[in-house]
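User: I'm writing a tutorial on reading structure tokens. Could you give me a worked example: one chain, its sequence, then its tokens, then a sentence or two explaining what the tokens reveal?
Assistant: Sure. Here is the example chain.
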Amino acid sequence: MLIHNSKRSQKLKQFQIPLLITATFIASVGIGIFTFTLPLLSLDEMAGGMWLGTAFSGYFLAKLLIAPLSGIISDRNGPKKILLISAGLASLLPLIYLISPSIESLYAIQFALGLCAGAIKTVGMAAVGAQTSGNKLTKRFSTLVAGINTAFFLGPILGGFLYIDRDFIPILTALSLCMITSFLLFTLCELSQNCVSQAAPQPKRIESKYIFGSALLAIFGRTLGIGGLIAFYPILIKSSLQLPTVTTGIIFSIPNLATILLLPIAGRFFSKAKREFIICSGLLISAAGLYFLADYTTISEFIFAGIIIGTGSALSIPGSMALCSELSPEQGKTLGIANLITNLGFIAGPLLAGIIINLSGELTTSFKLIALAGAALCLPLLNQALRIKFKSKSILIVPSIALISILFLVQTNFTQDFKQSSEQNPDKTLFRYTDVAMGTIVNLTLETPSAKKGEKAARNAIAKMRSLQKDFDHRNKRGSIGRINRAAGLKEISISKEALKLIDHGLKFSEKSNGTFDITIGAVTTTQFYYALGPKTIQKRKPLIDYKLVEINLDKGTVKLPHKGMALDLGGIAKGTIIDSAVEKLIVSGITTALVEAGGDFYGYGNKTWTIGIKNPRGEGLLGNIAIQNKAVCGSGDYYQFITTDSNSGESRRHHILDPSLMRSSHESIATTAIGPNAETADALATTIFIMGPIAGTKFIKRFYPECSAMWVMPDKSIHKTNNFPQITLTAKAAEPRKNK
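And here are its predicted structure tokens:
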């Protein structure tokens, strides 16, 4: 009987590590769903770049606080109770939002979730380390990391699907279910009474007092970059590629997918290798991927950079965990300190990235600088590894060369930014303010003698932009447009004065263009990947697209869509309206001269001539430059959202600008630039004349908007302009501009 029980006990013991890893994996899935989706919700709720970075850091601050404490407790009292309490508490956190539904409640949940997640990860690692030794240590940590990274690969994808309707309740439900499942699995684990390893530590490791400190610096550098990447990478993807949330989630997950696939290989082939060298190699590879990611603009390039970053992580993470685990028998304490440093990097990364964005006005600059910082911080560990390898105290050649190279790159980046800033703003009364709004980077260049006055005016303007975008976005169910669309075929809806005015202007523009510009195109465009739908599917919705059917009552302040399935999409005009509102706010604040830029659309006013760059629709950089004064410049093109398909005539591009009369993507041009007295007119005009083409578009402008001007880039890359379009200084190869009479 005793023999039978002993065999059963040994058999159960074999499953403890897999069971522990599975429970940690499921908990991480819930965390991944929440942490990926929260930045997207923050954009929808118009939270700013610094606020988003600060709030996101709260999650890692909580993990930092709990890591060493939970590790020490697990050394003394065992891991099981801590794991059960953490998972159980996390499963109840969504109740906070149900009691008080606000974005502040979600940030509170995020902080509390950080406490739970930090305890689960630290104690789970310590439990694995306490029951493992030798070469198995790297392999088991590879399996644990693979499980966590798999969770953070699936989490964003699931989060993208669950958040497809911009409703956060499914996200919170998924978080709760994952944590309940994790709790049940933790109850089945029969773990040791404490997290003190019975295997004797290696004497050489203990004697090398600098190894642990160098390893912690390297870990901090790695998480510095990852923290900034997690917080701002979704925004970079959306602003660069203009993709739906599901696709954004997939691309965001590529580094984790690469890590997952390569971890088994790294755990098997590098378990006996010198850990310090493997860690440094991985860290430098990841830093390189993050650095060059900043210059990438296509999906394939983002995927490539993600693979490089993931490869470096697969090499460095298990090795750093195993290295720290070997330095002391007290697994909880040692790994707790390592996790403290890890989360310190996660806190510093988003904060540093947010600060750099505000100072430089460039999201990509922040990625480059935190990548270089991460590379520099792994050099002390590399130096220690070389000293031990060659048994010398003066092996500094390789780290020195690497450090000089890193400092050179940092100096080059700062010098370029300074030169650009000096060239753009030679006048000391010009101040530039940068933030995130409308899902893109917003730059305000203000002429004011007081930086304090300019900062206050900029904050008010950007706050107004966020407020209006939230109200105008059809994806926001609580906004004016969202409520109208949800009530289609049912009832009229009372909406804000701003939304009512915008819809009225949109209907008038639709009437003037005879439906070429039609705000009821939302019957198609509010569907994800609508430009990839089959022709028959799109044609079925044509009866629902008719601006004449919209019932608007200006006196009552109501709008009704009479048929179910109808929907408004004001994306072709709302951005301009929001920019105009920002300009009004600046003028009210006493800013007499300024340039407002949001995602490639501009409004420059005051006693100053502004130079505006026009994007090259089929290449990198700019097509050319124009000069404006007291004008708005808006563009439209087939390169923002599109797919390519093979046809008999060659490659065909299906993009987001639909011709309502043909119910397919318009191919009259590939890009348009419209200049008008305000951004609302220029924005709507850019979309309309894109569909019309240069001949009909020129006639339309002459008849209804003679004060406006326009330029078309044609499929053959030739350029057509109206007679009154400003002189363009070409910087890219293009055919000679033609003027349309």
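What the tokens reveal: The radius of gyration is 28 Å. Confidence is low (pLDDT under 50) at residues 1-12, 199-207, 415-425.
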